[in-house]
Amino acid sequence: MEHKYISGGGRGLCSKGWHTNHYTQLNVCDYMADIPNNTEVTDLVEVQFKNTRKGYYHNSNGLELKKGDIVAVEGNPGHDIGIVTLTGTLAALQVKKANLKSEEEIKRVYRLAKEGDMEKYEQAKAREHQTMIESRQIAKDLGLEMKIGDVEYQGDGNKAIFYYIADGRVDFRQLIKVLAEVFHVRIEMKQIGARQEAGRIGGFGPCGRELCCSTWIKNFTSVGTAAARFQNLSLNPQKLAGQCAKLKCCMNYEVDQYMEAGRKLPHRDIVLSTQEGEWFFFKADILAGLVSYSSDKHLAANITTITAERAMDIIAQNKRGENPVALAKNTNKEKARPIDLATQEDLGRFDAQLASKKKKKKKKNKRNDNQGSTAKDNSGSNSDNSAQ
Questions:
Q1: Which of 49, 94, 125, 180 has the lowest CB atom count within 10 Å?
Q2: pLDDT digits (tens, 9 = 90+) for 139-172
Q3: What is the per-residue pLDDT across 250-292, written as a single tens digit (0 to 9) for each?
Q4: Residue 231 contacts residue 256 (beta carbons within 8 Å)
């Protein structure tokens, strides 16, 4: 556990509220850490463990705990090793949010982790990968339709949590017996979904950033294909699916804005009538508020793009029995186009400047040569005159 307590430095929010925590998904900034007597409000502390697991404990021994301290806490059975992430008022609020009403659910903090505790923890941690490989083979031999995604040992090595993925219900009673005989520890099984597994493994999305499920998303909401339809996305499963093989969570981020902007657009079944003929809906740029119409119902012919306001105006005229002259307004003024800052300066200007400098230098050298030859001729003629 290479976690250190940051006692100073930083800007903005309380610097004591931050520490180098790799598990940012569960990290909470303790912005009240600098407030005097904050830890005396309550003896509750939040302790975080490997992966995305954390718990709440009573500091019944009155230890001077601060964010980033490594502590030994009460386990079931034995003890576990974790990192203090919250103390004082915010820890009490998090306990209330977690809805832990029974005092039996909140265990105790034993002590600050000693060297012997850390040695046991490192030994248990080193066994996790091999245990996961062997347990997968055992589950396969038993014919169970499940996948063991990760194994987490308790700090003292007396208990192991097996995280598994399964599409349906699995009877793993025989598996627990075999695992207990092989690894000689207490076994606990926890089922997780495909999104939780992707969050635990981590990775990068097509946007180039780290997966949202491994950085900040805690609660997963359902994602439907309707979100893709509202945003005019191609219904290609390979493009819409994330690393968990489920629909990307980010499809829900902007769907509300698309739905709100889509209400301002005319319905795609409405046909616009003008003196030129009938126009049929072809496509729409929802956020830009632009609608493209075709003169043919089945083909892309004479595509004309107009604003949503213009389309609604034509629809209103058609309802009154009027047909405008043309689909688009006849205006001589050219619409101002957005300026692309990237194209304002051409990199070829450097070549042009260099060529211009070379040309000027060549002219200057030629002029100097001409002046030198003229002066030489003059000096020669003068010498001839003097000789005569």
A1: 180
A2: 999 999 899 988 999 988 899 999 999 888 888 8
A3: 999 999 999 999 999 999 899 999 998 899 999 999 989 999 9
A4: no
Tokens of 340: 């692309």
Domain boundaries, the chain: 15-113, 123-192, 198-260, 264-334
- Helix/strand/coil percentages in the chain, nearest 5: 35, 20, 45
% of residues, the chain, pLDDT over 90: 30
Share of the chain above pLDDT 70, in %: 81
User: What is the reported pTM?
Assistant: 0.63
Structure tokens at 273: 């009538």
| Average pLDDT value for residue range 100-129 | 86
E-state strands within 122-256: 147-153, 159-165, 186-191
End-to-end Cα separation, the chain, in angstroms: 105
210: left (phi over 0), alpha (psi -120 to 50) or beta: beta
CA–CA distances in Å: residue 280 to residues 174, 266, 289, 309, 346: 65, 11, 17, 16, 41
Q: Would you give the distance in Å from CA 387 to the centre of its chain? A: 94
Do 173 and 157 form a contact (C-beta atoms < 8 A)?
Answer: no
C-alpha to C-alpha distance for 71 and 59, rounded to whole angstroms: 11
Cα–Cα distance for residue pair 48/27, rounded to 1 Å: 9
Sheet holding 186-191, edge to edge: 147-153, 159-165, 186-191
Between CA 230 and CA 262 the distance in angstroms is 8
Cβ atoms of residues 16 and 7 within 8 Å: yes
CATH architecture of 123-192: 2-Layer Sandwich (3.30)
For the sheet containing 277-285, what is the strand order?
272-274, 277-285, 290-294, 304-307
Residues 128/132/135/140 CA torsion (nearest 10 deg): 180
Local structure of 45: helix, strand or coil: strand
Backbone angles phi and psi of 154, in degrees to 5: -70, 160
At 31-73, the pLDDT tens digits run 777 777 777 788 888 898 876 688 889 988 888 888 888 999 9
Q: Given the structure tokens 């987490």, which residue do they identify?
A: 152
pLDDT of 293 above 90: yes
